[in-house]
Amino acid sequence: MSGAALLALAAALCFAVAQILIQYGLRTVPSWRSPLYSIGGSAVLAWLFALVFVDFRQIHLEAAAIFAGVGVIFPVLVSILSVRSNEKLGPAVAAAVGNVSPLFAVLGAVLFLGERPGAGQIAGLALVIGGVALLALRGGSGGRQWPLWVLALPLSAALVRGAVQPAIKAALALWHEPLAAAAIGYTMSTVVILALVGRRAWRTGPADPTGVMWFTLVGVFNGAATFLLYAALGLGSITLVAPLVALFPLLAVGLSPIFLRGERLPLLGLLGVVACAGGVIVLLVAR
Asked: What is the 3-state secondary structure (H, E, C) of the chain?
């Protein structure tokens, strides 16, 4: 197996572990407070690496401004939506539905660019939509009961994640420093989450240290996954890397019953997760 493939699988594993760790953190820290620690943890990790490996004397101000602008909404908005969806749906379902960003990319190309989807893309779209439909039939884990609208949380996260990619790609073309992009973006997201909930957190007093530790680890694993993904893309093609990273919901399914009692998916939910992940892979390959 190539180095790019190994890095991509490692990224998928880190994304899956982060989804599992969210459940541990939610036992003692409310979901509204969690991004303070997960985003902050990612920001610290990003700066530790960036200060060592990035030559900031070569900074491109326009690219840095784009990274900062993206950071106002990403990853802070995705983190908020992801934690809420994980809380309501469980890690496996939240990961599967939150991983459908290519669905919006294909639909956007069809609606706004006049592109005609090929047979592979149509098959991928059908799998994703079918998988979400199965999950809408209450294929959740842990005996959870949730209204249909809750699926809008991970779908919105996927939409935001897909929407910011063109801006990030354009900025990296100006200044190809992914570590700097992560550090600047996570810093801006930290400022935003402090503005949103910092005062409320101050009024309610210190959070449970155990919960803070879990969500800091969530940030570390999400940050590590991002770095591994960038490294994999540097060694291999996106047609190799992206489908392997898209396997992380299936890894979350496998890890859930091991680390979280009561998170075993029923057959309907398992089929939905497999269909969503398979559809995303087909879409990526077809593109």
From this structure: CCHHHHHHHHHHHHHHHHHHHHHHHCCCCCCCCCHHHHHHHHHHHHHHHHHHHCCHHHCCHHHHHHHHHHHCCCCHHHHHHHHHHHHHHCHHHHHHHCCCHHHHHHHHHHHHCCCCCCHHHHHHHHHHHHHHHHHHCCCCCCCCCCCHHHHHHHHHHHHHHHHCHHHHHHHHHHCCCHHHHHHHHHHHHHHHHHHHHHHHHHHHCCCCHHHHHHHHHHHHHHHHHHHHHHHHHHHCCHHHHHHHHCCHHHHHHHHHHHHCCCCCCCHHHHHHHHHHHHHHHHHHHHC
**pLDDT value at residue 262:** 65
d(CA 201, CA 192): 14
The structure tokens listed for 170 are 């354009």
What would the pLDDT profile of 269-283 be if each residue is shown by its tens digit?
Answer: 778 888 888 888 887
Which letter, b or e, does each residue of 242-269 get, where b requires 16 or more Cβ atoms within 10 Å of its Cβ?
bbbbbbbbbbbbebbeeebeebbbeeeb
User: Comparing 87 with 103, which gets the higher pLDDT?
Assistant: 87
Tell me the whole-structure pTM to 2 decimals. 0.83
> Percentage of residues in the chain with pLDDT exceeding 70?
93
Report d(CA 161, CA 102) in Å as an integer: 10
Integer Cα distance of 272 and 278 in angstroms? 10
CA distances (Å), 228 to each of 11, 15, 93, 148, 281, in order? 5, 10, 23, 34, 19
How confident is the model over 118-156, as pLDDT tens digits?
888 888 888 888 888 877 775 555 555 677 788 889 889
Closest CA to 180 of 38, 36, 59, 44: 59
